[in-house]
Amino acid sequence: MYSATISDLLRLLVVPVLGWAAVRDVKTRRVPNETWLPLAALGLILLCWDAWAVWTETVWTLTVDGFDIALDTRFPRQTVDSFFVRTAFSVGFLVPFAYGFWWFGGFGGADAKALMTLALVFPIFPVFYGPGYTLPYLNETTLGVFSLTILSNTVLAGVIYPLALAGRNLLGGAISKMMFIGRPLPVADAPRRYGRLLERPDSYTRRGLDLDVLRMYLSWRGLDLDDLRANPERYRDPASLPEEPNDPGDGTIDDTSGSLALTDGGESDVDGDAAAEQDAADEWGADAFFADIGGPIYGTDAEELRNGLDVLTAQKRAWYTPGIPFIVPMFGGLLISLTVGDVLVWLLIQIGIGG
After folding, report:
1. What is the pLDDT of residue 267?
2. Where's the Prepilin type IV endopeptidase peptidase domain (predicted)?
3. Which residues pair with 289 in a beta bridge?
4. Are strands 183-186 and 61-64 parallel, antiparallel or unpaired?
């Protein structure tokens, strides 16, 4: 017999949507806001449904073609207090936590919205019964807050990526202190990649030029990176800035061509009077670029733009990080949580902590 609460079955709608969002975030670094609104609405409806079931100890059973879809005895066993305490912790702690991490730059916008949504949809542990087994398999848990289990499994899943990246770099002979978070990149490919440079002209950094900003800058000037590499001294001079810059866009790679989408209109040198007014210290016109777009963006300011352009015009290869979105291990954490359970609590029990 297969059984589960109807509300838990409806919660599984989150799985394909989060998987789609993870794939889209990797490919485009953009997830539409509309992705999360239906899931948040679903979470609110299911919370009200479950709250009523807990309060009234109601049991529904539905049989379809021999499969039982039932509101099982989990709800009558669960006290009203435990349900509302766990729900309050999930929503009251993880939603502000996700927002705070986004505010301080620890999460991207899609990552924060995904975690907020999971906190709303999965405040308590779902239960799925099959013939001879129950999922999640591991029932050990400290708080019984399923969204917290998803977060802990997400962190554990995220550990796999730097280890795999370091192994790949080691096999390729690319050994550096950046090998756990990045990999070498042919600089000619930089406009066709998402991520962030890990190099400055004389050092490594975790907060180098964001490649979205590179695309915006090139589009703003109406140039290709090849133009800058062919004549860096010319384009380092702010007098070479176009008289009427292009729309920089938002740094997205053109999906149709796989390359940078430039607006029409090439470079147009300013006249002598305007050139005299340019700040000669504004190498690459970085200050003028950020003044035009309204200030630093994507964690990149004028200094980091200059450092990145110096690296990209002087070297053939540079270290960069593709910056895998947090939503990717979050999807893995959700799958692990729904099938295996709370891996962190299980590990702690195995080494004699907790239980």
Report:
1. 44
2. 13-161
3. none
4. unpaired
Say what the pTM is: 0.78
So what's the pLDDT on residue 24? 92
Say if CB 105 and CB 98 are below 8 A apart.
no
Domain ranges of the chain: 3-161+325-350, 183-321
Beta carbons within 8 Å of 14's beta carbon, 6+ residues apart? 39, 42, 117, 118, 121, 122, 334
The pLDDT tens digits for 161-212 are 899 999 999 999 998 889 999 999 999 999 999 999 999 999 999 889 999 9
What's the rounded Cα separation, in Å, for the pair 331 and 159? 14
Tell me how far apart the alpha carbons of residues 332 and 210 are, in angstroms, rounded to a whole number. Answer: 26
CA 107, 108, 109, 111 dihedral sign is negative
The per-residue DSSP string of 119-161 comes to HHH-SB---EEETTEEESSB---SS-BHHHHHHHHHHHHHHHH
Rounded to the nearest 10 degrees, what angle do helices 109-121 and 36-56 cross at? 20
The residues that bridge with 197 in the sheet, in sequence order, are: 320
- Longest CA span, the chain: 84
Q: How confident is the model at residue 150 (pLDDT cuts 50, 70, 90)?
A: very high
Non-local CB neighbours of 339 within 8 Å, separated by 6+ positions: 135, 136, 137
Q: Please write the tens of the pLDDT for every residue from 221-278.
A: 999 999 999 999 999 999 999 989 999 999 988 743 333 433 333 444 444 444 444 4
185 sits in which H/E element: strand 183-186
- How far is the C-alpha of 68 from the C-alpha of 63, rounded, in Å? 4
Residue 346 has pLDDT above 60, yes or no: yes
73 or 15, greater pLDDT: 15
Interacting residues of 51 by C-beta distance below 8 A, sequence separation 6+: 83, 84, 87
